[in-house]
Design brief:
Elements: H1 5-14, H2 16-29, E1 33-36, E2 45-52, E3 55-62, H3 66-84, H4 91-98, E4 103-104, H5 107-122, H6 132-138, H7 149-156, E5 164-167, E6 170-173, H8 186-200, E7 205-210, E8 213-218, E9 226-231, E10 240-246, E11 249-255, E12 260-263, E13 266-269, E14 284-291, H9 294-307, H10 309-316, E15 322-328, E16 332-335, E17 343-345, E18 351-353
Parallel strand pairs: 16-18
Antiparallel strand pairs: 1-9, 2-3, 3-7, 4-6, 5-6, 7-8, 8-11, 9-10, 10-17, 11-14, 12-13, 14-15, 15-16
Helix pairs in contact: 3-8, 5-9, 8-9, 9-10
C-alpha cells in the first residue's frame, strides 16, 4: 500500500533525477517568505528540513516534545506525498488510470477530494482539481514545453470538476483521460494535519514552511505575532514587498515566480486557467491568502489568481474566514478589508491601493 517503506524507496529511485532537479529549485523557492521572529534559545527548540510534496519543507518547533512532533510531521508529509501525488503508486494515480471506473480510496483522500470539489464550486471552477490533463501536458515541474493549440483543445475537454464523483470512499472520473491533480491543495491539507500533530504533542509554538505555504502555530515564544514577509514578485530571494503580522493561521501565496520556464522569449508559469488551458494572464503576479484553514488558503490562492483582481478581490471580501493580498504587474497591492490596517509595505516600489 502507498506509504510503506518499500514504496518510498522505489519512488525515490524511480524519480531521483527529477526530484533532485526540483530540490535545487525548491531550495531557492523556500525562502520566498521572510520570517522575522526571535529565536527561543532553549533546548525545547527543534528544527528540521526535509523534502516532500515536491518541495523543501522546514519546521521550527517549540515545546517539551518538539522532537517527537517534528518526526511525526515529517512522516505525515511523506504519507501525503505518497497517497495524493499524481505519481505512480498513489491513490490519485490509481483514480486517473482507472477512469471511468471507480476506485476505492481512504477516508482521508475522499475527504480532501470533497473539500477540493467544494472550493471548485465556490469559485465557479477557477480552482479545478480535475486540471490534470492540462498540468501534465505542460509538465512545468518536469520537462516543460509549450503545447500546440490542438493539444490544448483536446486536454481542455477533459478538465471539468463536475465530472469527479466521490461516493463515500469510492471515486470515479466521468471520462477516460480525465486526471485529478491536487497540487493546488495538498500542501495546504498537509499543513492542517501538521497543526493537529503539533496540538497532539503539546507544541507551544511552531513555524512550518512547505515551499512557501506557511503555517504559524500559536504565537512566537515571547507571545507576539510572527511577522511574515511577502516576497517581491519581481525581486530575488530575500527581497520583499510587504509584511503581515499573524498568529495561529496560514499564509499561502501563488505567484508567477514560483514555478515557470521560458520558451521563445516568453515566460510560462504554473498557474493554469481551466477555461483557456494556458497560464493565467490577467495582470496579477501573485496572490497571498491568509486563512486558519491552510487547505482553503492553498486552493483559494490559486482560484483568486485565476479569477483576476476584480473578481478575486470581490469574492475574497465576501468570505469571513479569509484575507487576501493581490500583487499586480504594475506593482500595486490590493488587500481585503481586514488587512488595511495590518499590512506594512516595506518596498517603496509598491503602492497600497485603497
Amino acid at each position: 500500500m502507498p506509504g510503506d517503506a518499500l514504496f518510498v524507496a522505489r519512488l525515490i529511485r524511480r524519480n531521483y533525477n527529477k526530484i533532485m532537479k526540483k530540490v535545487t529549485f525548491a531550495a531557492l523557492a523556500v525562502i520566498c517568505f521572510l520570517t522575522l521572529f526571535s529565536a527561543c534559545g532553549t533546548s525545547n527548540e527543534q528544527t528540521s528540513e526535509s523534502y516532500a510534496l515536491d518541495t523543501v519543507c522546514t519546521q521550527s518547533v517549540y515545546g517539551s516534545r518538539a522532537a517527537d512532533a517534528v518526526d511525526a510531521v515529517n512522516a505525515m508529509l511523506w504519507d501525503v506525498t505518497n497517497t495524493m501525488s499524481i505519481y505512480e503508486g498513489s491513490y490519485i494515480y490509481e483514480i486517473n488510470a482507472a477512469a471511468p471506473d471507480p476506485v476505492e480510496v481512504t477516508g482521508e483522500v475522499a475527504a480532501l477530494l470533497q473539500a477540493a470539489l467544494e472550493i471548485a464550486r465556490e469559485t465557479d471552477g477557477a480552482f479545478d482539481p480535475a486540471i490534470g490533463a492540462i498540468s501534465t501536458l505542460w509538465d512545468i515541474s518536469g520537462t516543460p514545453r509549450v503545447p500546440d493549440a490542438a493539444e490544448i483543445t483536446e486536454a481542455l475537454a477533459l478538465v471539468d470538476y463536475t465530472g469527479v464523483t466521490v461516493d463515500g470512499t469510492s471515486v470515479s472520473l466521468q471520462k477516460s483521460g480525465m486526471m485529478i491533480d491536487l497540487g493546488g491543495i495538498a500542501k495546504g491539507y498537509a499543513a492542517d494535519l501538521a497543526a493537529e500533530i503539533y496540538e497532539e504533542y503539546g507544541v507551544t509554538s511552531a513555524l512550518l514552511n512547505l515551499g512557501g505555504n506557511i503555517y504559524v502555530y500559536g504565537t512566537k515564544t515571547d507571545g507576539g505575532d510572527y511577522r511574515i514577509g511577502l516576497r517581491d514578485p519581481f525581486g530575488g530571494a530575500g527581497e520583499y514587498a510587504a509584511v503581515v503580522s499573524v498568529s495561529d493561521t496560514s499564509v499561502v501565496t501563488s505567484g508567477v515566480y514560483e514555478r515557470y520556464f521560458e520558451s521563445g522569449g516568453e515566460t510560462y508559469h504554473h498557474i493554469f486557467d481551466p477555461e483557456t488551458g494556458y497560464p493565467a494572464d490577467n495582470g496579477l503576479v501573485a496572490v497571498t491568502v491568509i486563512c486558519a484553514s491552510s487547505t482553503r488558503a492553498d486552493a483559494l490562492s490559486t482560484a483568486f489568481f485565476v479569477m483576476g483582481l476584480d473578481k478575486g478581490l470581490a469574492l475574497a471580501n465576501t468570505m469571513d474566514d479569509v484575507e487576501a493580498v493581490f500583487f499586480t504587474s504594475g506593482r500595486d497591492i490590493y488587500v481585503t478589508g481586514g488587512l488595511n490596517e495590518s499590512i506594512e509595505i516595506t518596498n517603496e516600489a509598491y503602492t497600497l491601493q485603497s
